[in-house]
UniProtKB/TrEMBL annotation:
Residue stretches making up the Major facilitator superfamily (MFS) profile domain: 30-467
Transmembrane segments: 30-55, 67-87, 99-118, 124-145, 157-179, 185-207, 274-297, 312-335, 342-362, 374-400, 412-433, 445-463
Pfam families linked: Sugar_tr
Membrane topology: Multi-pass membrane protein
Subcellular localization, as worded in the UniProt entry: Membrane
Molecular function (Gene Ontology), one example: myo-inositol:proton symporter activity
Main location: membrane
UniProt-listed CDD domains: MFS_HMIT_like
Alphabetically ordered keywords of this record: Membrane, Transmembrane, Transmembrane helix, Transport
Annotated region (Disordered), positions in chain: 492-511
Record protein name field: Major facilitator superfamily (MFS) profile domain-containing protein
């Protein structure tokens, strides 16, 4: 890409990622153990959509007041805002592994409180605890995976975290269906989340800290031992030297995120450019309306004319399955197509499907639970939306944010971006039902569609391509280019690049 070191087109990353199963299972173990945080993230954000149907049945006040419904859903998001903000500090001060262990503890406590809730108020308290865990895990899991992955397959491995998020949402719908006839319905749905939290806590106790965090803290020998397990023998010394050079540069600049000066952070060119791209992506991810679908998909299905709770849950399971399938597509394409192109393709599809949904809901056929022969059109629109969103906007913002910041600021900047994501999430979750009542479902979807068009142009201008770049080289790329719209052009690599890449550069000079 213009303005920085660019990788060759790589079609083998997907194959190499799965070859780790027998070549280097250690890397895969790190990725999937940390990725359970994504599973919990997905489960706890998805399970409420089905549980809410039964909570309304048990607590009539919740059924009567839309604000209570929105609060039960969105208080987890409010907790996630705090969790993401605290998580950024905790990641830099105490390490990625410690932050994940703290998140597991919060997940478990929240699950127990929710399962035992005697009323809406206690339920909301439990949702806040779960939200704290979600916020910490949402930024820590991809960061840990990113820092413990070889550059060539980093995108695919971080995408496994996003697959586990979507699988967690799919699993939550399966659990919802499994407990529809069981006494206590929603209590079981919400309480089951404590089990994967215990599993991850048990696994992470025996796993190492991020090697890059250890290097930053002066624990070089520990870091080198882990890097030697992650990288092939012929690559590991180069990786160690690149990391050492990066740390030496940071020390010379006296940069640290433990005693962070936010004014100085913003004045640092590479950090500012990274934050504009990273925070912008996280905000657009939410304001194109994804979590209205994930939190309220059964309610949307009922708006489309399917009255039964069980039918609504079953149809919503299809959207969750499409979301998980889209994450698998991301694992295949993210290191092949690149982050930026995948984002643009995704946003184009999202804009088209939201326009379709706005047109479908424009008619007066849709009132909650009223049968309609046109309801299937709304389901097609939802399906198109999910399959467009999931491979690009669903995964790439988290991947870019795990790659784009200098090491000394990676925790705090990741926390800022994740906090922006959850604040945007809260705004959307807290206003969706009220918006549909105030301006109609059709105009609400149209509003999200307009935002997705704006997001499309934002990606063209401000988001760099980080595919295949060693994390230490991303900073060099940001130093050279403030705007990223000519991302299809390529320049020469510095001295020391492989001969075949130099030949490709010479060929592209005339483009």
């Amino acid at each position: 890409m213009e303005g920085g070191v660019h990788p060759l087109p790589d079609t083998s990353a997907f194959r190499d990622c799965f070859a780790l199963t027998w070549k280097n299972p250690y890397v895969l173990r790190l990725a999937f153990s940390a990725g359970i945080g994504g599973l919990l993230f997905g489960y706890d954000t998805g399970v409420i959509s089905g549980a809410l149907l039964y909570i309304r049945d048990d607590f009539k006040a919740v059924d009567r007041h839309t604000v209570l419904q929105e609060s039960i859903v969105s208080m987890a998001v409010a907790g996630a805002i705090i969790g993401a903000a605290v998580g950024g500090w905790a990641n830099d001060r105490h390490g990625r592994r410690s932050a994940l262990l703290a998140a597991d503890f919060l997940f478990f406590i929240g699950a127990v409180i929710m399962a035992a809730s005697p009323g809406p108020a206690t339920l909301i308290v439990g949702r806040v605890f779960v939200g704290l865990g979600v916020g910490m895990a949402s930024m820590t899991s991809p960061l840990y995976i990113s820092e413990a992955s070889p550059a060539k397959i980093r995108g695919a491995l971080v995408s496994t975290n996003n697959f586990l998020i979507t699988f967690g949402q799919f699993l939550s719908y399966l659990i919802n269906l499994a407990f529809t006839k069981v006494p206590g319905t929603w209590r079981w749905m919400l309480g089951v989340a404590g089990l994967p939290a215990l599993l991850q806590f048990s696994l992470m106790i025996f796993l190492p800290e991020s090697p890059r965090w250890l290097f930053r803290k002066g624990r070089e020998e520990e870091a080198k031992a882990i890097l030697r397990k992650i990288y092939p023998a012929e690559d590991v010394e180069t990786e160690i030297q690149d990391l050492k050079d990066s740390i030496d540069k940071e020390i010379r600049e006296e940069g640290t995120s433990e005693k962070i000066n936010f004014r100085k952070l913003w004045q640092t060119k590479t950090v500012r450019r990274g934050l504009i791209a990273g925070v912008g992506l996280q905000v657009f991810q939410q304001f194109v309306g994804i979590n209205t679908v994930m939190y309220y998909s059964p309610t949307i299905v009922q708006l489309a004319g399917f009255a039964s709770n069980q039918t609504a849950l079953l149809l919503s399971l299809v959207t969750a399955g499409l979301n998980a399938f889209g994450s698998i597509l991301s694992i295949y394409f993210i290191d092949r197509t690149g982050r930026k192109k995948l984002l643009l393709i995704s946003l184009f599809g999202v804009a088209v499907s939201l326009g379709l949904l706005a047109g479908i809901f424009h008619r007066e056929w849709y009132t909650r639970g009223c049968p309609s022969k046109f309801g299937w059109l709304a389901l097609i629109g939802l399906g198109l939306y999910i399959i467009s969103f999931s491979p690009g906007m669903g995964t790439a913002p988290w991947i870019v944010n795990s790659e784009i910041y200098p090491l000394r600021f990676r925790g705090v900047c990741g926390g800022i971006a994740a906090t922006a994501n959850w604040i945007s999430n809260l705004i959307v979750a807290q206003t969706f039902l009220s918006l549909t009542e105030a301006i109609g479902t059709d105009m609400t979807f149209l509003l999200f569609g307009i935002v997705s068009v704006v997001g499309f142009f934002f990606v063209i201008v401000f988001v760099p391509e980080t595919k295949g770049l060693p994390i230490e080289e991303v900073e060099k790329m940001l130093e050279l280019r403030p705007l990223q719209y000519k991302f299809w052009e390529k320049k020469k690599r510095p001295e020391g690049t492989m001969e075949e890449e130099e030949k490709l550069d010479k060929k592209n000079q005339g483009v």
